[in-house]
């Protein structure tokens, strides 16, 4: 994908704040590494700094509103310019958004000398700011197809408010609703965007292949994942209603994925990583459906969605977008191919090893967490120069 905002050739030495994907993909990679490394330490009782969320909520909040939101912000602050032809934030405005995101990650550890209302307010305001930028471009261009991002950002903000309410006194329990809402929204976004870009990338990358995309299945898939997001958010995975919705949604999306599949994807890592990630979406839904009717150790459905779907698809998209928007060929380094393999191995271990033996639960958490960290070390080693330095073709962006 190439930027439509073409101006005069770029002559600066660095380009970190020339387009939204650059700083936010870099921050996403760093946060993915730090968050999971810290969580593995917390899980095994190592000393750590106290966050005003508490360890468990901090892990859930930051994996969504830290890591996942950074990827979503970086993607939309780049892609919406392509979709609408509107100029997107760069330089000072982009730096302001980056600083706001960073403060949301740091201030929760400063509650000893910063009022909690300020900690919450700084973190909460980030999503409305990004939503305003995205919404303005979509409305100004009359890009009706992407108007759905406006209510999505509103719901995202409400979910974040609920988690902050729980972190403060008097609102115990609403944080879990907010966390499930937020996860459901991320899954909805990945389902909608993935449903667009995965078949498009597959067709573009494999000459002569035509993906099957039936309009009725596409519409039903969006409705079903929206129903899952709502029911999961408010009822929780123990609800049989959620179980039925999850199973039905999994079946619908398996039909959808089948229409995009060809064995030729296995020769293209940038394609198979996205297809496998979408397959983890289906596995996660099926496991969540099963968990509504029977206990399964280790929340395998949740981790199929978080590690497999969200981790895999964001890694694949960041790798591809970073190459395309810096004028490089869509050929990934060997280290990134290894990262694609390892993110799926980490998911397999985290999801299925505890199901095989409860005695291996802690080992599964540790090994999958370490593999996740290795994945994002590899990502950062390869992509830090790509994200910091200008495009290789001299164009802006």
Description:
With 397 residues, the protein is mostly helical. The protein has a single domain (21-388), classed as Cytochrome C Oxidase, Chain A (Up-down Bundle). 72% of the residues lie in helices and 0% in strands. It is built from twelve helices and no strands. The protein has helices at residues 21-43, 55-84, 92-106, 116-140, 149-167, 174-205, 215-235, 240-260, 269-291, 300-324, 334-356, 361-388. Helix 4 packs antiparallel against helix 5, helix 5 (149-167) packs antiparallel against helix 6 and helix 11 packs antiparallel against helix 12.
List keywords for this structure.
disordered N terminus; Cytochrome C Oxidase, Chain A; mainly alpha; 397 residues; 12 helices
Architecture blueprint of SSEs:
Elements: H1 21-43, H2 55-84, H3 92-106, H4 116-140, H5 149-167, H6 174-205, H7 215-235, H8 240-260, H9 269-291, H10 300-324, H11 334-356, H12 361-388
Helix pairs in contact: 1-2, 1-12, 2-4, 2-6, 3-4, 4-5, 5-6, 6-7, 6-9, 6-10, 7-8, 8-9, 9-10, 9-11, 10-11, 10-12, 11-12
Summarize the structure.
The chain is mainly alpha-helical and 397 residues long. The chain has helices at 21-43, 55-84, 92-106, 116-140, 149-167, 174-205, 215-235, 240-260, 269-291, 300-324, 334-356, 361-388.
């Amino acid at each position: 994908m190439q930027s439509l905002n073409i101006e005069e050739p770029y002559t600066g030495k660095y380009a970190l704040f020339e387009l939204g994907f650059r700083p936010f993909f870099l921050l996403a990679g760093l946060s993915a590494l730090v968050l999971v490394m810290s969580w593995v330490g917390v899980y095994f009782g190592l000393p750590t700094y106290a966050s005003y969320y508490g360890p468990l909520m901090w892990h859930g909040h930051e994996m969504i509103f830290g890591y996942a939101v950074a990827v979503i912000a970086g993607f939309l602050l780049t892609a919406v310019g392509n979709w609408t032809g509107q100029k997107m934030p760069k330089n000072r405005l982009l730096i302001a958004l980056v600083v706001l995101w960073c403060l949301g990650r740091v201030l929760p550890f400063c509650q000893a000398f910063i009022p909690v209302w300020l900690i919450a307010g700084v973190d909460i305001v980030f999503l409305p700011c990004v939503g305003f930028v995205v919404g303005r471009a979509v409305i100004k261009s009359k890009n009706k197809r992407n108007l759905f991002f406006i209510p999505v950002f509103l719901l995202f903000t409400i979910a974040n408010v609920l988690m902050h309410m729980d972190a403060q006194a008097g609102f115990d329990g609403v944080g879990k609703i907010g966390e499930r809402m937020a996860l459901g929204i991320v899954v909805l976004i990945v389902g909608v965007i993935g449903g667009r870009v995965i078949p498009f990338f597959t067709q573009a990358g494999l000459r002569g292949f035509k993906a099957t995309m039936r309009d009725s299945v596409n519409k039903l898939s969006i409705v079903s994942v929206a129903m899952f997001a709502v029911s999961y958010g408010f009822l929780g995975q123990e609800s049989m209603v959620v179980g039925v919705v999850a199973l039905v949604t999994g079946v619908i999306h398996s039909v959808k994925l089948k229409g995009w599949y060809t064995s030729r994807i296995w020769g293209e890592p940038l394609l198979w990583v996205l297809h496998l990630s979408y397959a983890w979406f289906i596995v996660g839904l099926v496991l969540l459906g099963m968990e509504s009717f029977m206990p399964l150790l280790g929340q395998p459905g949740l981790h199929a969605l978080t590690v497999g779907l969200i981790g895999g698809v964001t890694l694949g998209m960041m790798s591809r977008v970073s190459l395309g928007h810096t004028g490089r060929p869509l050929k990934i380094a060997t280290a990134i191919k290894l990262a694609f393999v390892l993110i799926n191995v980490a998911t397999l271990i985290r999801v299925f090893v505890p199901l095989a033996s409860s005695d291996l639960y802690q080992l599964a958490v540790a090994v999958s967490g370490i593999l996740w960290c290795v994945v994002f070390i590899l990502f950062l080693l390869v992509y830090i120069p790509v994200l910091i330095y200008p495009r290789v073709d001299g164009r802006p962006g």
